[in-house]
Design a protein that fits this description.
Elements: H1 8-32, H2 37-59, H3 65-68, H4 70-92, H5 94-118, H6 123-144, H7 160-175, H8 181-201, H9 217-224
């Protein structure tokens, strides 16, 4: 379906860029956690490829693309190497990393949804796997790093919601038979812009209604300082 918008070579190049940026985020967290070089490489690989690997295993697209395309496997290692030697400089380009990360989020939630649907899943399941493709690597990254996944933390700017919106646009476009280059681009751009706006204005998901307990507030606020 995405071939209506991107040629295979362009799609592959976009995948590589998204994988590289996701890997950068994983490698940076490994440095902050004082991991050794192997740990940095592992976290980079898991962050970059975890979501797509999970999707491919669920839909039966085996062996997964991460193991059939050497570029997919080597790109996170390149990112890990870059961070290993130049992590102070990479940290200073965090804004650019966030922008590319948002672009990768938008692209992967759409490609994940369309690939799942192409393999016979229903619309709801396809959109769910689109979300998993976009955010799964980050969840695995946080678990390995012994952190509460950013996906479920109230003190983190919206990340899953933009992916949900992008995947939902694709699913609805398929449902009403209007999926084409324009609607695909709309889904990618919508998720991308929502993520950037969430970063800019610190949009966060609401917590439980009439929440009374504040026992963990100081610790949580300190963690975001």
């Amino acid at each position: 379906m995405l071939l209506e918008l991107f040629s295979p070579s362009v799609q592959h190049a976009l995948d590589i860029v998204g994988i590289f940026v996701f890997a950068i985020s994983g490698a940076l967290l490994a440095v902050r956690k004082n991991f050794d070089v192997f740990g940095i490489a592992v976290l980079a690989e898991v962050t970059a490829l975890g979501g797509g690997l999970f999707r491919d295993l669920v839909i039966g697209a085996v062996p997964p693309a991460a193991f059939t395309d050497l570029g997919y496997f080597l790109t996170p290692l390149l990112a890990a190497l870059l961070v290993f030697f130049l992590h102070p400089q990479v940290e200073r380009t965090q804004f650019a990393v966030n922008v590319f990360d948002a672009a990768g989020l938008g692209l992967f939630c759409v490609t994940g949804t369309t690939k799942a649907y192409d393999h016979g899943l229903g619309l709801t399941a396809s959109a769910t796997l689109g979300l998993a493709t976009a955010v799964g690597g980050g969840v695995l990254r946080d678990i390995i790093a012994n952190e509460v996944p950013s996906l479920v933390r109230w003190d983190r700017d919206l990340y899953a919601v933009p992916a949900v919106v992008g995947a939902a646009i694709v699913a609805l476009s398929i449902r009403f038979e209007v999926l084409n280059g324009i609607t695909t681009a709309l889904a990618v751009v919508t998720a991308f812009v929502l993520r950037l706006l969430a970063l800019r204005y610190h949009w966060r998901a609401p917590r439980a209604w009439n929440r009374r307990s504040s026992a963990e507030e100081p610790a949580e606020e300190k963690a975001t300082a």
